[in-house]
Amino acid sequence: MGVPRTPRAAWIEQGLQTLAASGVDAVRIEVLAKALGVTKGGFYGYFADRNALLDALLEAWQHESVDEVLDRIAREEDPRDKVVLAGRLTLSADRLLAIDLAIRDWARRDDSVAARLRQVDNRRMDLLREMIGTFCSDPDEIEARALLAFSLAIGNQFLAADHNGRTREEVRARASAIVLNRPPDRKPPA
Q1: DSSP of 4-33, one letter per residue?
Q2: Around 100, how many Cα atoms within 13 Å sit in the side-chain half-sphere?
Q3: Quick one: how many helices (H) and strands (E) in the chain?
């Protein structure tokens, strides 16, 4: 009886974890095989080479951070809650945030990754425009609010400033309330 082969999904997940922790240069077949506790031979049953794996990582990230998020937020009724939940699922969740930031770094050096990131960011901006358009009719203001919301979600990861006796979460929540034109004391969706 043969040894069961390591599933394709395990290679992809380990690749995403390695990408998030150490960057794209660390995503090597040997490194992944060692982390999975297997030989690298099984890798070639699923992928032609490292580039095929990298493409699969981008595909998995795009599916999880856009398609699955859109499916999940569809259950929310309030457009503002959809925006907050989408942000929480993608850019506040530790796993996806780390992957997203690693892909942004990778995109600075690889035009094809930059193009994929642009597709993802455009879909995210489209969602913001659509949801903000439910309570705002000025196209210029919709675009500005969408940019502010997205910039808040991304930029919050890089800011190290103190907030004069307020927590980062308190200030971020207030900024979100301003951008989404909602009362500051309203609780976001769970």
Answers
A1: PPPPHHHHHHHHHHHHHHH-GGG--HHHHH
A2: 24
A3: 9, 0
- The values of phi and psi at residue 163, to 5°, are -130, 45
Return the CATH architecture of domain 58-179: Orthogonal Bundle (1.10)
Regions of the chain short of the pLDDT cut 70 = 1-4, 184-190
CA distances for 24 relative to 27, 64, 102, 143, 182, angstroms:
5, 19, 8, 32, 39
Which conformational region is residue 184 in: left (phi greater than 0), alpha (psi within -120 to 50 degrees), or beta? alpha
Q: What is the DSSP letter of 135?
A: T
CA-to-CA distance for 119 and 123, rounded, in angstroms? Answer: 6
Query: Is residue 166 classed as helix, strand or coil in its secondary structure?
Result: strand
Whole-number Å distance between alpha carbons of 45 and 10: 13
For residues 99 and 20, the answer to whether their CB atoms sit within 8 Å is yes
What's the CA gap between 79 and 73, in Å, rounded? 9
Residue 74 and residue 108: Cα distance in Å, rounded? 32
